[in-house]
Design goal:
The complex is a heterodimer of chains A (744) and B (315).
Chain A (H helix, E strand, L loop, with lengths): L1 H15 L13 E14 L2 E14 L3 E5 L6 H8 L8 E10 L2 E2 L5 H7 L4 E4 L3 H4 L6 H10 L7 H14 L5 H4 L9 H13 L5 E5 L7 H18 L2 E6 L2 H7 L2 E6 L2 E7 H6 L4 H9 L40 H5 L5 E2 L6 E2 L7 H14 L22 E14 L4 E16 L4 E5 L6 H8 L7 E6 L2 E2 L5 H10 E4 L3 H4 L6 H11 L4 H14 L16 H13 L5 E5 L7 H18 L2 E6 L2 H7 L2 E6 L2 E7 H6 L4 H9 L41 H5 L5 E3 L2 E3 L38 H5 L1
Parallel strand pairs in A: 3-8, 3-9, 6-7, 7-8, 15-20, 15-21, 18-19, 19-20
Antiparallel strand pairs in A: 1-2, 1-4, 4-5, 9-10, 10-12, 11-12, 13-14, 13-16, 16-17, 21-22, 22-24, 23-24
Helix pairs in contact in A: 1-6, 5-6, 5-8, 6-8, 8-9, 12-14, 18-19, 18-20, 19-20
Chain B lengths: L1 H24 L8 H6 L5 H11 L5 H13 L13 H36 L4 H15 L2 H15 L16 H35 L2 H9 L3 H29 L3 H7 L4 H10 L3 H29 L1 H4 L2
Helix pairs in contact in B: 1-13, 5-6, 5-8, 5-10, 5-13, 6-8, 7-8, 7-11, 8-10, 8-11, 9-10, 10-13, 11-12, 12-13
Classes of the chains: A alpha/beta (744), B mainly alpha (315).
Bound molecules: iron/sulfur cluster (2 copies).
Main location (chain B): membrane
Protein name (chain B): ABC transporter permease
Subcellular location (chain B): Cell membrane
C-alpha cells in the first residue's frame, strides 16, 4: 500500500518538472551551505550574539546532524537563514546562506518566500502547535502545494495530499484530510508536518528538534519516517537536535554547536568515537547511558556561555577540562581547522587531547558499580527491608470525563489503576512510562495533590488518604516534591533565599536561624550562599533546579518525589543535578521516587524500576533485571526505541518501532492493556488480564513473560502484529527499512 | 456541535427565565406598590383595589408572575401607567430607531476598529502604527457625550453640514436621510468602541503572529499578506468576536446619554423618561426586551465562535 503511494509520489515529482528522484549524490555540491552566519539581538542586557560565525554544508541525500545545547545557536541560525526570525529586537543577520547558487539572505522577501516550502522545507518541534488549529489538516498541506503551483486545481491538490498522508503513514487519509489538528495525536501531527515538508520534493529538508516533544516509541517512528522521506526526495537533511542519541542513529555527518559556533564537525562515527573537541568529548561523558550502568556521570562544570558576553578566546575555556589554564585558550579564539578530508574539523587549539577524555571515562565508571549498594547479589525475594518510607498499596485514581448537556460524568479516566510500590530509605525507585501512562498522577497522589479513588498510600506508616489537615501538613513536610519546571514552582517575587526559607518560616523558626540554615542548604546543593538575595529569574535552569531542591530539603524530608526533575535541563547541567541528587541521598538516606520518561536517566539514578502503561505497572524489579533482562514486550519495545548514542553498528540494530499511539485511558483495552500494540498478543490476552507476577527475579504482567527473553526486541519483523479486533490505527511506518533499502 | 448548541440554548433559556423574574420582581423592591405610585397618596382604598385588579396585581406572587410572563410571551406587556397605551406598542415605536443606530454604530466600529487593530498589531513601530496607537488612547479617554457635543458644535452649529438633533429616519424609506440623521450619534459612539475593538484585535493578532503555526505558514512559502489573511486573522478574531457581541448588546440596551445629547428617539431615552415617570410597566417591558436581546446576542456569539473554532465545534 505504502509502496504504491511512494511510486505515485515519485511520478508526480517528475511530472512537476522538479528534480528527478536522483540517487543520493554525496560527492556533489552542497545543497545548502551556511557561511559565517552571524545573528545578533538587542536586549536590555546588551547585544546578544546568538550565532557567532556559523558555517556548515549539507550535501544532497545526506543527513547532517547539528547538535548542541539550548542557546548554542543551532536553531536560530537556520531560522535566520530562512528569514523566519521576526522578533523586533533582531539586530543583524550577516553572512551567507547559499541554497545552490542563491544567497537566501540577499533575496527580497517575496523571492525568498517563493523558495521556502519548495526548495527548502522545514519540520518544526511540537507539531501540534505548528499547525493552524482552525484549518483542516488537508488544506494546510494542500496550501503548501498550491502556493507554489497556482495552476494546480483544488481536486488535484486533494488527491495529491491524500497520497502524501498515506505515504507518511496517516491511516484513513481521505477522512483525516478533513479533520483538524486537535483531532490528531502529537505523533500524527508530526507526520502531517513531514507530509507538508516533502510535498514539493524540496532539495533541503530542515528538521528542528522534530521528535523532542514525543514519546520514545513515537520518536522512533518519526525518525524512521524522516529517513524514508530523505530517501524518497533525495533531499539533504539538516537534523537539529540536542539529543546525541538521535544524531548517532540518523546522521551521516555531525556538526557540534557551542556558543554560537560550530566547534567540531565530522563523520558521525568519528565524532562519537574519536572526538577532536573537548566539548564533544565532555558531552558524551555527561550523557546517561542505556547500555552501561555507570556509577557517576562526568558533568561539565559551570554554565553554558552567556551570548551577551562571549569571551575573547575559546568560548568553552571556563569549562574545559583539557585547557588547564593554558593562556592560548583564553586569548586566541580557535578557528575550525579542517582536517585532510575537508569536511571535518575542530575549533580547538589542542584537538588531539580531546579523545583522551573519552577513554578515561568507562574505566573509572565501571570500576564502581559492583561495590555500590545496588549490587547484583540481591534477587527479587530479598528486597523487603523492614519499613518502607513510601508504601503504595493498590492505589487508584479516576477522573470523571464530563460531557453531555448536564456535564455529568459519562466516563472515567483510569489514570492510576491498582498500583502498588514500596520505596525503602536510602533507595531510589524509578517510575518510567510514556506520556499519559499515569506516572505523574501517581507522584502527585503521594502528597495528595490529587485525591485517591481507592487504595492506600503510607508515608512512614501514616495513611495519606485518611490524614486530617494537620496530619497532612506533617506528612507533606516529610515528603517533598521537586517539579520539572523549577521556575513555575518558585515564587518569582521572593529572593531564592526566601523561597528556600519558606518552609522554615512556616515552622516558626526565628530569622537568624533561618538565615544560617539557608546558607547551609545552599552549600549542600552547590549554590553560593551569597547569592541568596537574588531573584529566581537571575538564575539559569540548572541553578533554579538546585534552588528547588534546596527548598525541598529545608524541612529535612525522608522522601523526595522527583517529577521529571532534569527533563528541562541540558545534558551537561542534567548530569550535575543527577550527581547532586545521588550525593544528597548518600548523605541523608532519603528515599526517592523518581519519575521520568527518560529511560537512560532512570537507569542512571534508580535502584528499582517500575514501568507504567495505561495506569498499571507492567514490569518492575531491580535496574539490572528490567534493563538487561526485560520480559514485558512493552519494556522491550521501549528499550529498543531509545536512540543509542553510538553510531557503531547502528546498521545492524534491529529497531522496529512500536506502532500506533497509547490508547485512550478512558476506555482501556480489555484483558492486557498493551495488547493493541503488542507484537506477540494472542487470543488469551484479550480475555484475561495478566497479573503482575514473579518472573526471573522481577515482576512482569504478561502471559508470555517466560517466552519473551530470546525474541527480537519489538517482535516479528514489520511490527505490524496487533492481535485480532485491533481498533488502533496500524503502526504505519511506511515499510521502514524495507522498501527503500531494497530499491537503493 | 449539537451537544454544545443544546447546552447553550438551555443556558440561554434558564438565564432568560431568571432575568425575567428579576425584571418582574424589581417593582416589589420599590417603596409602595404600583397602584399607590400610580394614583398618588390620596387615593381611596377602593380605587387602589380597582387599579390593582386592572394591573393584574391580585393573587399570590407566583400567580402574578405566571400571569405576567404568560402575557409577555403572548406579546402583551400591559399598558403604560402613564399614557395608557400598550407597552408593546410604545416599545415597537422605538426599537427600530435603536436598532438602526446600533447597526450604524457597529458598522463604524468595525470599519474603523478592524483596520486600525491590524495596522497597530503589524506595524507597531512604524509611523502609522504610532499615530493610530495615539488614536486608540484618545478614543478610550474621550467620553462619548463630550465628543457628541463637540461634533454638534463643529459640524452642525458652526459648519451646518449636518442636523444637530437627529430624528429617526428609517433606512428603508430614505437611506440618505437616515445616514445624515444617524452619522453623528453613531460616530460619537463608535470612536470609543472602535478603540476598544482595535485594542482587542491588536493584542490578539500580535499574539497570534508569534505562534508556531504562523511560522509554519511562512516556511511553506505563503506570501505574507496571505499569512495574515488566511492564518492569523481568523485565529485572532476569536476573542474579538466576544467583545463585539458585548458592545452590540450595549448599543441595543440604548445609549441613553448619546440619545439625550442628540435628542434621538431611541429606546434608551424612552426608558429614561419612563423611570422618571415611574412608569413601571414600561420599564419592565423595556428592560425585559434589553435583557432578552443581550442574551440572544450572546447566544449568537457562541454559535459564531463554534463556527470559527473547530475545537469548540468538534468536542
Ligand atoms: S581551545 Fe582550549 S579551552 Fe577551547 S576547547 Fe580547546 S583546549 Fe579547551
Ligand atoms: S499479555 Fe499478551 S498482549 Fe499483554 S504483553 Fe503479554 S503477550 Fe502482549
Amino acid at each position: 500500500m505504502s509502496g504504491g503511494a511512494l511510486d505515485g509520489a515519485v511520478r508526480d515529482g517528475t511530472a512537476h518538472g522538479s528534480a528527478p528522484p536522483v540517487a543520493p549524490d554525496r560527492a556533489g555540491r552542497p545543497v545548502l551551505s551556511l557561511r559565517d552566519l552571524v545573528v545578533e539581538f538587542t536586549t536590555p542586557a546588551g547585544v546578544v550574539r546568538a550565532v557567532d560565525g556559523m558555517s556548515y554544508d549539507v550535501l544532497g541525500g545526506e543527513t547532517l546532524g547539528v547538535v548542541g545545547e539550548t542557546g548554542s545557536g543551532k536553531s536560530v541560525s537556520v531560522l535566520a537563514a530562512l528569514g523566519l526570525l521576526r522578533t523586533p529586537n533582531l539586530r543583524r543577520v550577516s553572512g551567507k546562506a547559499m541554497l545552490g547558487d542563491v544567497d537566501l539572505l540577499a533575496l527580497p522577501e517575496p523571492d525568498l518566500r517563493r523558495r521556502l516550502g519548495r526548495d527548502v522545507a522545514m519540520i518544526f518541534q511540537d507539531a501540534i502547535s505548528a499547525l493552524n488549529p482552525v484549518q483542516r489538516v488537508g488544506h494546510q498541506i494542500a496550501e503548501a502545494l498550491r502556493v507554489h503551483d497556482r495552476a494546480l486545481s483544488a481536486d488535484a491538490a486533494r488527491t495529491r495530499v491524500v497520497e502524501l498522508l498515506d505515504m507518511v503513514g496517516v491511516p484513513h487519509p481521505a477522512t483525516r484530510y478533513d479533520q483538524y489538528p486537535h483531532q490528531f495525536s502529537g505523533g500524527m501531527c508530526q507526520r502531517v508536518m513531514i507530509a507538508m515538508a516533502i510535498a514539493n520534493r524540496p532539495k533541503v529538508l530542515i528538521a528542528d528538534e522534530p521528535t523532542t516533544a514525543l514519546d520514545v516509541s513515537v520518536q522512533a517512528q518519526i525518525l524512521d519516517l524522516l529517513r524514508v522521506a530523505r530517501q524518497e526526495t533525495g533531499a539533504g537533511v539538516v537534523l537539529i537536535t540536542h539529543d546525541l542519541g538521535v544524531v548517532a542513529e540518523t546522521a551521516d555527518r555531525v556538526s557540534v554547536t557551542y556558543g554560537g559556533r560550530i566547534v567540531e564537525a565530522g563523520d558521525v562515527t568519528q565524532i562519537f568515537t574519536r572526538p577532536r573537541h573537548p566539548y564533544t568529548a565532555a558531552l558524551l561523558g555527561a550523557l546517561p547511558r542505556l547500555d552501561t550502568a555507570s556509577d557517576r556521570l562526568l558533568p561539565i562544570p559551570g554554565q553554558p556561555p552567556d551570548p551577551s558576553d562571549l569571551p575573547p578566546g575559546c568560548a568553552f575555556a571556563p569549562r574545559c577540562p583539557v585547557s588547564r589554564g593554558r593562556a592560548v585558550c583564553t586569548e586566541v579564539r580557535p578557528e575550525a581547522v579542517p582536517d585532510g578530508s575537508g569536511t571535518a574539523g575542530s575549533a580547538c587549539h589542542f584537538p588531539d587531547e580531546a579523545a583522551g577524555l573519552l577513554t578515561a571515562r568507562p574505566e573509572g565508571a565501571r570500576a564502581e558499580p559492583a561495590g555500590a549498594p545496588d549490587g547484583a547479589g540481591e534477587p527479587g525475594s530479598a528486597r523487603e527491608p523492614a519499613a518502607p518510607v513510601l508504601d503504595i498499596r493498590e492505589a487508584m485514581v479516576r477522573f470523571p470525563v464530563r460531557s453531555g448537556v448536564l456535564a455529568r460524568p459519562s466516563a472515567w479516566v483510569h489514570a492510576v489503576d491498582g498500583v502498588s510500590l514500596r520505596v525503602p530509605a536510602g533507595r531510589t525507585l524509578g517510575l518510567v512510562g510514556e506520556s499519559g501512562c499515569g506516572k505523574t498522577t501517581l507522584a502527585r497522589l503521594v502528597l495528595r495533590l490529587v485525591e485517591p479513588t481507592g487504595g492506600q498510600i503510607l508515608v512512614d506508616g501514616d495513611d495519606v488518604g485518611k490524614a486530617g489537615r494537620s496530619q497532612l501538613r506533617r506528612i507533606r513536610r516529610r515528603a517533598q516534591m521537586v517539579f520539572q519546571d523549577p521556575y513555575a514552582s518558585l515564587n518569582p517575587r521572593l529572593t531564592v533565599g526566601d523561597n528556600v526559607a519558606e518552609p522554615l518560616r512556616l515552622q516558626g523558626l526565628p530569622y537568624g536561624q533561618r538565615r544560617r540554615q539557608v546558607a547551609d542548604l545552599f552549600t549542600r546543593v552547590g549554590l553560593r550562599p551569597e547569592h541568596a538575595d537574588r531573584l529566581p529569574a537571575e538564575f539559569s535552569g540548572g541553578q533554579r533546579q538546585r534552588v528547588a531542591i534546596a527548598r525541598a530539603l529545608a524541612s529535612r524530608p525522608g522522601l523526595l518525589i522527583l517529577d521529571e526533575p532534569v527533563s528541562a535541563l541540558d545534558v551537561s547541567v542534567q548530569a550535575q543535578v543527577l550527581n547532586l541528587l545521588a550525593d544528597l541521598q548518600r548523605e541523608s538516606a532519603m528515599a526517592y521516587l523518581f519519575v521520568s520518561h527518560d529511560l537512560a536517566v532512570i537507569r542512571q539514578v534508580a535502584d528499582e524500576v517500575a514501568v507504567m502503561y495505561l495506569g498499571r505497572i507492567v514490569e518492575s524489579g531491580s535496574v539490572r533485571r528490567v534493563y538487561d533482562d526485560p520480559r514485558h514486550p512493552y519494556t522491550r519495545a521501549l528499550l529498543a526505541s531509545v536512540p543509542v548514542p553510538d553510531p557503531v553498528g547502528r546498521a545492524d540494530r534491529q529497531r522496529v518501532p512500536l506502532g500506533g499511539d497509547v490508547p485512550s485511558p478512558v476506555d482501556p483495552p480489555s484483558g492486557c492493556r498493551f495488547r493493541t500494540r503488542c507484537p506477540i498478543a494472542a487470543a488469551v490476552c484479550a480475555e484475561e488480564e495478566p497479573p503482575l507476577r514473579l518472573v526471573a527475579g522481577g515482576h512482569t504482567a504478561c502471559h508470555f513473560a517466560e517466552r519473551t527473553a530470546g525474541m527480537e526486541p519489538g517482535g516479528q519483523a514489520g511490527g505490524q502484529g496487533p492481535a485480532e479486533q485491533t481498533a488502533a490505527p496500524g503502526p504505519a511506518e511506511p515499510a521502514a527499512g524495507q522498501g527503500p533499502e531494497v530499491r537503493g | 456541535m449539537y451537544g454544545y448548541l443544546v447546552r447553550r440554548l438551555l443556558q440561554f433559556a434558564a438565564v432568560l427565565l431568571l432575568g425575567s423574574i428579576a425584571v418582574w420582581g424589581f417593582t416589589f423592591a420599590l417603596p409602595g406598590d404600583p397602584a399607590t405610585v400610580l394614583l398618588g397618596p390620596d387615593a381611596s382604598e377602593a380605587e387602589l383595589e380597582a387599579t390593582r385588579e386592572r394591573l393584574g396585581l391580585g393573587g399570590s406572587i407566583v400567580e402574578q408572575y405566571v400571569s405576567w410572563i404568560g402575557h409577555a410571551v403572548a406579546g402583551d406587556l400591559g399598558d403604560s401607567y402613564y399614557s395608557g397605551q400598550p407597552v408593546v406598542g410604545e416599545l415597537l415605536d422605538r426599537i427600530p430607531a435603536t436598532v438602526q443606530l446600533a447597526g450604524f454604530a457597529m458598522a463604524l466600529t468595525l470599519l474603523i476598529g478592524v483596520p486600525v487593530g491590524i495596522v497597530v498589531a503589524l506595524r507597531p513601530y512604524a509611523v502609522v502604527g504610532r499615530v493610530l496607537q495615539g488614536y486608540l488612547t484618545a478614543g478610550l479617554a474621550v467620553p462619548a457625550f463630550w465628543l457628541g457635543l463637540l461634533l454638534i458644535i463643529v459640524l452642525a452649529v458652526q459648519l451646518r453640514w449636518l442636523p444637530a438633533s437627529s430624528d429617526f429616519v428609517p433606512l428603508w424609506q430614505d437611506p440618505g436621510g437616515a445616514l445624515t440623521a444617524t452619522i453623528l450619534p453613531a460616530t460619537a459612539i463608535a470612536v470609543h468602541t472602535s478603540s476598544v475593538t482595535a485594542r482587542f484585535l491588536a493584542t490578539s493578532l500580535g499574539e497570534v503572529m508569534g505562534k508556531d503555526y504562523i511560522r509554519t505558514a511562512r516556511a511553506k512559502g505563503v506570501p505574507e499578506r496571505d499569512v495574515i489573511r488566511r492564518h492569523a486573522l481568523r485565529n485572532a478574531s476569536l476573542p474579538t468576536v466576544t467583545i463585539v457581541g458585548l458592545q452590540l448588546g450595549g448599543f441595543l440596551g440604548g445609549t441613553v446619554v448619546i440619545e439625550a445629547v442628540f435628542n434621538y428617539p431611541g429606546l434608551g431615552r424612552l426608558l429614561y423618561t419612563a423611570i422618571g415617570e415611574r412608569d413601571y410597566a414600561l420599564v419592565q417591558g423595556g428592560v425585559l426586551f434589553v435583557v432578552a436581546a443581550f442574551l440572544l446576542l450572546n447566544l449568537l456569539v457562541d454559535v459564531f465562535y463554534a463556527v470559527l473554532d473547530p475545537r469548540i465545534r468538534l468536542t
